[in-house]
Amino acid sequence: MTIEVGIKLEGKVTGITHFGAFVDLSGGVTGLVHISEIADNYVKDVNDHLKIDDVVTVKVINVDKDGKIGLSIKQAVDKPASEQRPQRGPRPDRPGSRDGGKPGFGNRDRGGRKSSYNAPSFEDKMSRFLKDSEERISSLKKNTEGKRGGRGARRM
């Protein structure tokens, strides 16, 4: 029997590690169920969910070129449509979304509040940086000129 991505199989747990469980499928073929693919909720310890010789239904999620088979227990369980999460797409009310968003929603700060601040251009940022740095350098020069002499006060 060939193992293909997407098929569901019955298998027997043959080994448990801290990162997952090894499942014997058929004919000596073994795959790994990663700890993140065991259950829908957080799995701290694999031993809390699986025991050696448990028979489980798994879904093949990937087959590597070197023969490694990735399995999933949580994807093998068919969920009702009400429990499945809807796929998330771009949000039209967010700045930077591809469809441009709703009118008037583009100027929002991180808190979601309306902001009249328009982002400065690169040239504006550079000129402000140069101005600030020149002010700081001149202030440092003024404050350090008097401290350069050895003893005594400022020399004039």
From TrEMBL:
SUPFAM superfamilies (alphabetical): Nucleic acid-binding proteins
Ranges of biased composition (kind: Basic and acidic residues): 76-112, 122-148
Annotated segments matching region Disordered: 72-156
Entries under InterPro entries matching the protein: NA-bd_OB-fold, Ribos_protein_bS1-like, S1_domain
Gene3D superfamilies (alphabetical): Nucleic acid-binding proteins
SMART domains hit by this protein: S1
Coiled-coil ranges from the UniProt annotation: none
GO process annotations (BP): translation
GO molecular function, one term: mRNA binding
Protein role: Binds mRNA; thus facilitating recognition of the initiation point. It is needed to translate mRNA with a short Shine-Dalgarno (SD) purine-rich sequence.
Protein name as annotated: S1 RNA binding domain protein
